[in-house]
């Protein structure tokens, strides 16, 4: 069973969105992907604001398994402001009630393609977006936020420190492994094309990498794996050479950015969402080891094990966004440091940080 988010995090989100969230007063919001990492943060912060601000708003949450969600997150599912709609994002039955806002956050993350046919993944993402857009038109929604990915710029980017929205790179359509990236890219276009034919105002969040409660610690997320190793008191294990450059935004800040974009982003605009604080995977592992010292370890630090060795002359790949557009146009910024984010995540998992 998932634990509720801390009051500290929920109050942080509310502090930076309380002038925006009253737009939901008396309204309904429809959320796909509500049972995932992003969804938990959006729904819990929605419920917190609903109670604190007396919004009398409601959320319809699409889920493939309503029973499993109730068992996992009863603090969300049992709230009277939440209605669970069981169905597949590609073919869910449209609820009759009017929904003014739509957040389309459903899809597997790009690292979960192993063992799944690329065409199946791409079709699921594209048809899910089409069906959600059909619903937005049917329900006469005013605004829709689509959560895309920084992978629309391509993979293995080098020679640049921070990737702007104007970066001309793109996934290689001839590579089966690009199915997730290409489908997200095309879904962005579907949102914009659809909005041009309807009154719907669409905006796109190109999301990079994040950390926080509800992030799986046993999946393909490096920072989640590092926190898992630290909690277990085992060496932090890097299977590569530790040189790729990444950045991580804490999920409470992520929720602020997504709520702000849903309510205020100009239509047909895409914004990078993430942190500009750049770390190599190796330095990230050492930061995690330093932040999460073993309990009762006398101040000793965890060991970092690196399997690979850098190859001389090999370009270092970068997956770090430029967020200057979000800062200048929407007034967004990172509030919580990565060190604090690691600490808060570990504490949510029951680890007493020393």
TrEMBL record:
Keyword Transcription among record annotations: no
Pfam family, one: Epimerase
Biological process according to GO: D-xylose metabolic process
SUPFAM superfamilies according to UniProt: NAD(P)-binding Rossmann-fold domains
Organism: Granulicella sibirica
Protein name: dTDP-glucose 4,6-dehydratase
PANTHER family: UDP-GLUCURONIC ACID DECARBOXYLASE 1, UDP-GLUCURONIC ACID DECARBOXYLASE-RELATED
Keywords: Decarboxylase, Lyase, NAD
InterPro entries cross-referenced by the UniProt entry: Epimerase_deHydtase, NAD(P)-bd_dom_sf, UXS-like
GO CC terms of this entry: cytoplasm
Named cofactor requirement(s): NAD(+)
Presence of keyword Cell inner membrane: no
Residue ranges annotated for the NAD-dependent epimerase/dehydratase domain, each copy included: 29-274
GO molecular function: NAD+ binding; UDP-glucuronate decarboxylase activity
TM helices/strands, residue ranges: none
